[in-house]
Structure formats: C-alpha cells, structure tokens
From TrEMBL:
<keyword id="KW-0436">Ligase</keyword>
<dbReference type="InterPro" id="IPR024185">
    <property type="entry name" value="FTHF_cligase-like_sf"/>
</dbReference>
<keyword id="KW-0547">Nucleotide-binding</keyword>
<dbReference type="InterPro" id="IPR002698">
    <property type="entry name" value="FTHF_cligase"/>
</dbReference>
<dbReference type="Pfam" id="PF01812">
    <property type="entry name" value="5-FTHF_cyc-lig"/>
</dbReference>
<protein>
    <recommendedName>
        <fullName>5-formyltetrahydrofolate cyclo-ligase</fullName>
        <ecNumber>6.3.3.2</ecNumber>
    </recommendedName>
</protein>
<keyword id="KW-0479">Metal-binding</keyword>
<comment type="similarity">
    <text>Belongs to the 5-formyltetrahydrofolate cyclo-ligase family.</text>
</comment>
<keyword id="KW-0460">Magnesium</keyword>
<keyword id="KW-0067">ATP-binding</keyword>
<dbReference type="GO" id="GO:0030272">
    <property type="term" value="F:5-formyltetrahydrofolate cyclo-ligase activity"/>
</dbReference>
<dbReference type="InterPro" id="IPR037171">
    <property type="entry name" value="NagB/RpiA_transferase-like"/>
</dbReference>
C-alpha cells in the first residue's frame, strides 16, 4: 500500500533515505561489491534468457551502484543489443536510449555520469526495448523505488504495463526497506534483482 505524505515532509523523508542508503552502499567492501556484481549478473542473464530479449537498457554504474560492466560484456557475447540512457537534449527531465557498443564514443553528462555521445542514428525507441534495468538508491517489497531525485526513470517508466518493456531494478540487498514514502508520480518496478 502506498503512503502519501504531504509533499514537503515526503521530500525531506526521501532525501534522508537517499543520504542514509548511499552511505550504506558506500560502506560496502570491494569484495562485497564484486560478489554482488557476480550474483546480479547471473540473475539478470537468466531473466534476459527467460524473456527471449533482443534489446535491453542498462546504465553505467555510478556512486557505488552495483557494477554493470560484467553484465554488459556477457550480453554483448550473447549478441543481445545493449542501450544506455542519455539525458534528452530538448525535453528536460526525460531520457533517450542509445545503442551501446565497445567502440561507442562516450561523454559525461551534467551530473558527471558517462553516457553515449548523442547521435540520432543510434536512438533506440522504447518499443524496441525488452527490459529496462534501472538503478536505484532504495526500494521496498512493493517494488517502489527511490532514485537520485531527478525523476528521469519515473517519466520513462510511466504506463509501462501498456508498453513492451519490463522495468527491473538492480540493487544491493542492503538497499531494501520495508516501506518507502511514495508520491503519485512514483512508478513501481515489476521486480528488483538483488544479491
């Protein structure tokens, strides 16, 4: 069940959760991070196979998120198309997804996160993506997620039940809370894969 709090109180609570969960994630050891990456990679590959995916959206890890490097390489080996999010240049607060290959030219966006250099020929429409693997800061048992606060993924995942893709979060087990405060624009995920 969603808990709707007054907006100012909700924002304060959500920011506290962001801060606390990022601290928890930063305290993980290199060994714990590597174990999590192996476990998540295996689970994600199984899910991709079960759904017969041809194209998936991923993200490059940032700020102690579970590394997606191994998963991306294994997807390439399996001839699965990989896309990465790019901040939309004209529609503020929205994402585009671009093909990502080993020779893709990369650049940092305004948040300091690497993304493919914008080339309209490499844009992949959402209708062609089978799974969107999303980053998150915290999640709960109902699939609610808290991200970094920009709302990019919430806008992308709107009405996903009527679209062709499945939204799946990737997270450390320690990022799970019982219940998150939610707002009406929050979009729950279909599932979250953890270590």
């Amino acid at each position: 069940m969603n808990t709707y709090l007054p907006s100012q109180q909700s924002n304060q609570t959500r920011n506290q959760i962001r801060h606390q969960m990022r601290e928890v994630r930063h305290r993980l050891t290199t060994f714990e991070q590597q174990q999590a990456e192996r476990c998540i990679t295996e689970k994600a590959l199984n899910l991709v196979e079960q759904h017969g995916c041809q194209t998936v959206a991923l993200y490059l890890s940032f700020d102690s998120e579970i590394s997606t490097e191994s998963l991306i390489k294994k997807l390439w080996q399996e001839k699965i198309n990989v896309t990465l999010p790019v901040l939309h240049p004209f529609s503020r607060g929205n994402l585009l997804f671009l093909k990502y290959q080993s020779d893709t030219i990369m650049q940092k966006n305004r948040y300091g996160i690497l993304q493919p250099k914008l080339n309209v020929q490499n844009v992949v429409p959402l209708e062609q993506i089978d799974i969107i693997f999303t980053p998150l800061v915290a999640f709960d048992k109902n699939g609610n997620r808290i991200g970094m606060g920009g709302g990019f993924y919430d806008r992308t995942l709107q009405h996903w039940q009527q679209k062709s893709f499945l939204p799946v979060g990737l997270a450390h087990r320690c990022q799970q809370l019982d219940n998150l405060p939610t707002e009406i624009w929050d979009i729950p995920l279909a599932m979250v894969l953890t270590d």
